[in-house]
Amino acid sequence: MNLNKAFILGRLTRDPEVRTTTAGGNVVNFSIATNRVWSDKSGNKQDATEYHNVVTFGKLADICSQYLSKGRLVLIEGRIQTRSWQDKDGNKKYWTEIVAENMQMGPRTESGQRSPEQKPSPASQEEPVVNQEEIPVIEAEEPIRDDESNLIPAEEKAGVDVRNIPF
């Protein structure tokens, strides 16, 4: 069995870039910075930042272009993909990215989103207040209509009866 799955939680380093495919679908590219903190052998705190390229397609691309912006905290689930090509000089080039399959936005504070460079002042070390009304809920599985234009829930469309689930 093989598995290609990536989960990253970090902040956008730039606003999403929207492009359109020849077929008319949207493609959105952005990058995410993740930090790692550790202590070395002498006890000094060390940190390192990794930058990840992310690409989204279709409906998820539309959602990302609408709701994401530089500095925003986001969780991405997807697969790692490496593309290669030859440049004009004949050198082989590589580009590795995460093809996003799911995205979850981090909380937005009452006073707006704090940028990653801003640290809370020592006087205000408590957690920021989150306005739940500002966090959009996005349903990926929308109901469909049958031949008589009746709505069919996504579970029934997939052939799943929730009453038969044992938990």
TrEMBL record:
Protein name stated in the entry: Single-stranded DNA-binding protein
Presence of the UniProt keyword DNA-binding in the record: yes
Gene3D superfamilies xrefs: Nucleic acid-binding proteins
Organism of provenance: Candidatus Portnoybacteria bacterium CG_4_8_14_3_um_filter_44_15
PANTHER family: SINGLE-STRANDED DNA-BINDING PROTEIN
Record keywords: DNA-binding
Database matches in InterPro entries: NA-bd_OB-fold (IPR012340), Primosome_PriB/ssb (IPR000424), ssDNA-bd (IPR011344)
Basic and acidic residues: bias regions: 142-160
